[in-house]
Amino acid sequence: QVRLVESGGGSVQSGGSLRLSCAASGYTFSTYAMGWFRQAPGKEREGVAAITGSGRFTVYADSVKGRFSISKDNANNAIYLQMNTLKPEGTAMYYCARSDDNWYSLYSSSYKHWGQGTQVTVSS
Prior knowledge:
About 0% of the residues lie in helices and about 50% in strands. The protein is mainly beta. Strand 5 and strand 6 (about 60) form a beta hairpin.
C-alpha cells in the first residue's frame, strides 16, 4: 500500500525559508516520478515542482522558479522541497504525490497517490 507522509510545514515571515519532506513507503521508490502541489483556501490545487523517478530531471511552476528546489533521495525513500524567499501568496496546504510513471508532470491528474498535506503559512 502506497503511503506518503509530509512534514516540515509551519509559519514563517515573508522572505524566510522552509524545507518540506515527504516520506514514502509501500512501493519501489525509484520507479516513479513525484511532485509537490499546493492548495490555498478557495483556489484550485496547483503543481509547484516535480521530479523524475531517477531524480535527474525536474520541473517548476513559473511562480516558484529560482526560489524552490525539489530533490529525491532514492536511498531513503524521500523527496524534499526547499522553499526560499517565501511570499505571502505561498500560504497553502502543500501535498506530495506519486505519479504512476517515471516522467514528471505538474498536472494533478497525472498523480494517483497523495499525502495528507502539511500547512505552510507566510506572513507579511
